[in-house]
Design brief:
Layout lengths: L8 E4 L5 H12 L3 E6 L11 E4 L7 H13 L4 E3 L15 H6 L1
Length: 102
């Protein structure tokens, strides 16, 4: 598949596993310059990707992620905002801490 992303700078949040990791791998296979991001130290199997260890729920961290991406690779062309959390509970079962996290 040719997505027309050759040499584009693509940031994929939540990309240390699951859908985010597979998205990062696909973009890398398309020739994009990929920046992976997550709370763990690496994103396995994404070739030459730059990885930024970041907790996007913390103040200032989204800006730091983009700053680091731009410092290493230039302007960001694509952002895949995959980071998130979900709970399979009724409204009454969600704790205050979980509500804040959501």
């Amino acid at each position: 598949m040719d997505l027309g992303l050759q040499d584009s700078v693509c940031v994929v949040t939540g990309s240390t596993g699951g859908i985010g990791l597979e998205t990062a791998r696909l973009l890398a296979a398309e020739g994009a310059q990929v920046v992976t991001a997550g709370r763990t130290a690496t994103a396995p199997g994404v070739g030459e990707a730059l990885h930024v260890k970041v907790d996007l729920a913390a103040a200032g961290e989204p800006a730091r992620l983009i700053s680091e991406a731009e410092a290493h690779l230039g302007a960001v062309d694509v952002l895949v905002n995959n980071v998130g959390v979900a709970y399979q509970r009724t409204f009454e079962e969600v704790t205050d801490e979980q509500w804040d996290e959501l």
